[in-house]
Structure formats: C-alpha cells, structure tokens
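Continuing the batch. This is chain 6 of the set; chains 1 through 5 are on the previous pages. Same settings as before, nothing changed between runs. Recording input and output for traceability.
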Amino acid sequence: MIAERKNILRLDWVIILVYFLLLGFGIGNILSSSISGEEINIFDFSTLYGKQFLYSLISLFFGFIAISIEVKFYERFSSVFYILSIVILLCLFFFGKRVNGALSWFSIASFNLQPSEFVKITVALAVSKYISDFQTDLKNTIDQFKLFLIILIPIVIIIFQNDTGSSIVFLSLFFVLYREGISQNYLKSIFGIIVLSILSLKVSAPVTAVIAILLIIFYYSFKKKVRNKIIKIISVSSLCLITCFGTIFTYENILKNHQQNYIKVWLNLEKDPEKIKQMERTILYNLNESKKAISSGGMTGKGYLKGTRTMGNFVPAQHSDYIFSTVGEEWGFLGSVFIILLYTILIIRIIYLSENQKNKFSRVYGYCTASILFIHFLINIGMVLGLTPTIGIPLPFLSYGGSSLIAFTLLLSIFLRLDGNKKNEW
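Output for chain 6:
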C-alpha cells in the first residue's frame, strides 16, 4: 500500500504541462471573448471568465482526488459507475432542463450539470473492464455484441434527448476496439456507410446504390477463394440499398429542420440563391463570422484583447463552441498551430504511454481517453473552419463550461493515476 501511494508522484509531467497550458489558454481566451470594457477581476464569479476560473479550481480538486484513489478502485467499480451513469441519463427525461433544444442538463441552484460529459468516463471504464476481463474474447460474436451494447446504450439515450453531438463522441471508442483486435470489417462497414450516406445526399440514392452494387459485383468476381460468393454479393448489396435509401428516408422524415440545415450547409446541398442568403443570416452566421475572425488574425494575430471581432461579440457562442476563432484572431496562424500542436502532443503522448502499460485495463482506458479527446478536438476545430458539420461539442480544456472541464480533467487524471502505477504491475 505504501508503494501504491508513492506512485501518486510518478505522474507524466508532459501531460500535466500540456494540460495546464491548455487550461491557461482557455481561461485567457474566455476572458477576451466575454469582456466588454469593464475592469477585469478573475475572482468575480458573476463573469464567464470568473466562473471558468472557479471551474478550473474545482476540476483540479477532483483531479487530485482521482489521482489519489487506489488504482484497483476504478477497475473494481467500473460496472457500478456505468450503471449509475445510465440511470442518471434516464432521469433527465423526468427532471432534466432543456437548453437549446437538448434535454441534457440538470439545474442545480445556479449551476447546470450535463451528465453526458461524465458518461464518457464511465463508458470508457466499462469498455476497459470488459475487454480486459480474461473471459472476454473479441473474436466471439456474443462478446462483441455485449461490447457494442455498452457503447450503444448511452448513444441511443442521448440521441432521444436531442443531443446528437455528444452521442457521436462515443463512436470514437470503435477505434479502441480495432486496436484490441476486433475485425477490420466493422471499421470498413462504418466507413462504407458514411461514404454511401454522403453520396446518397449529394448525388442521389438510386445512382449511388447502382454504382455501389456494380463495384461489389466487380470486386467479388475477381476475388479468388471466396466461399458463398453469390450470398455475399446479395447480402452486401442489400446493405448498400438499405444504407442509401435509409439515409434519404432519415434525412427527410426523421431529422428536424435545423439538423437538415446543418447537413445542407456542410455538404453544400442548397442551390436556391434566396434560401442561401437566408441561411447566411441564420444558420451560416456563426460559421461565417468565425471564419472572418480567424482570417483577420493573419500570421501573428492582432494581439491579446485586441481582436476587434472578438471584443465586438461578432461570433455567437465564441466562449464555448467557437472558442478557437478567438485563438485565430488574437494569436493568428502561429498561435492556432501552437494550440493544435499541444493537442497533438497530448494525444500522441497518451497513446505512447498506453502502449507501454503492463495492465490491459490501463492500456484500453488510455486508448479510450485518447480517442475521446481526439474526436472532440477534430470535430470542434473542423466545425469552426467549416470542415465538419456544426454539432456543438466543446474543445477540451479551452471551451467554457463546468461539466465539460471537470469531466475532461477527471478523464485525464484517471489515466495519469493508472499510468503512474505501471511499475507495480506485472
């Protein structure tokens, strides 16, 4: 036990340094995107930057507790955490608060808590526990089904709460399954579904389906040593048909108007000039202003607290989902690259340390942590630049928000604790 406690000091200081740099940048950029000429007081908790500073202190407190807890605690109680988090998610249907159309929040006094941010941690723990169990065989169909269920249950619940952005993050865990030896066919299928869905919307479902089926027939015709070739052609072709026409049905009959508009913007589906002008005043407004703010920063930026678009509040939600536009305007291209490098170092460092774990639970959890951070980083910055759809997820450690900051800190702190204990593992 004494050796166990000594490992609290065996933390990876590269990760800790990057964490504090991102945290500092976050508070600083939230300050610049939220003040309007008043005197700056970091201890004024009525301001956005003051609240974020308070959330940072709370995050550090919980992070310290997470690092201090015995390692086996996380593995032993991972199933309990998972079940409790699912129950809490379900409670949102009865006691939740709707914000921007999403039923994702509990209102506690003056603080709003978003459970889905913490569910990412419990799902990562549950996936790590299940994969590391000696009875689990990822080549076994039943075990695969159980593992998929662990990931898909929170996704379905969160989708019904109209929080599509948060639900997409959980799909990043399929990268972890691939690393742990699950069949490549799953990733190929996911990639194929995405491509077929996009082409069905951009071109048309019938044309996309015909081309896909012809390619399938061509592929299997020249591939040797394939059992039940006709059955496979029919089954894969059927999946293509379901995907193509299912995409159109879902887009036209299930997705809400604002969700359709986001897809129209991303894929440039709208051709009517009048509707495009209307979208530029509504749904495209945030994106256009964000791009203008980033491009105005040039190579070195306008300087801290000197961003005219940032200080003028031209970009809505600039302190949260669009925080990267503040970085682009005030710190320029060089500052933006620096932030991207920090995230790259953080994610690569986590992957490197995960590969060196002696304990399978620790390794899988490390990959879960890297995957969750990567998908947030990729989608948020891509959204601000117009490269990915606008789905509204925070940029880790930079975006304003107590729930996300505390959750990301806990996610990272647990990995630091697991990594710090690897010298005691055999």
